[in-house]
Write a structure and sequence with these properties.
The chain has 5 helices and no strands. It is mainly alpha-helical. Helix content is about 70%, strand content about 0%. It has a domain of about 80 residues. It is flat and about 80 Å long. The longest helix has about 40 residues.
Length: about 130
């Protein structure tokens, strides 16, 4: 009976902590839930905009805010372009190497095992 209670508690704790991870499916970074309420009007933008427009006329404030939003949109677009370029380069490199990353790791591991088996690898000292 005691074992059943302990197992049930461990399972419940594991299920509780599973929902604490932000990324889905083992991906790096934040998941979709994290970005659900995020937008371009984040608190640090609002504060910096407030400091930039303090003491200005309403027309001047509108002009400054419009310019700052445009600059942020440009930065986001540039970042997206860089990200897609890096992804494209990685895909080209992967295709040029003749296989996926997993296949390359398997081949490297087999080569290392062969070296160790024949005495030419890290497993043996110098002959």
């Amino acid at each position: 009976m005691r074992k059943a209670i302990v197992i049930a508690m461990v399972v419940l704790i594991a299920l509780t902590f599973k929902s604490a991870f932000a990324a889905e499916g083992g991906k790096k970074g934040a998941g979709a839930k994290a970005y659900e309420h995020a937008n371009e009007q984040a608190i640090f933008y609002r504060v910096s905009d407030w400091f930039a427009t303090i003491g200005k006329s309403p027309e001047e404030k509108a002009k400054i805010l419009k310019e700052r939003r445009r600059e942020r949109a440009e930065k986001r677009a540039e970042k997206q372009i860089r990200k897609s370029q890096r992804k494209e380069e990685r895909l080209k490199k992967q295709q040029a190497s003749g296989g996926s990353e997993v296949e390359n790791r398997i081949r490297a591991r087999k080569r290392m095992e062969d070296k160790i088996r024949t005495g030419r690898g890290k497993g043996k000292g110098k002959k």
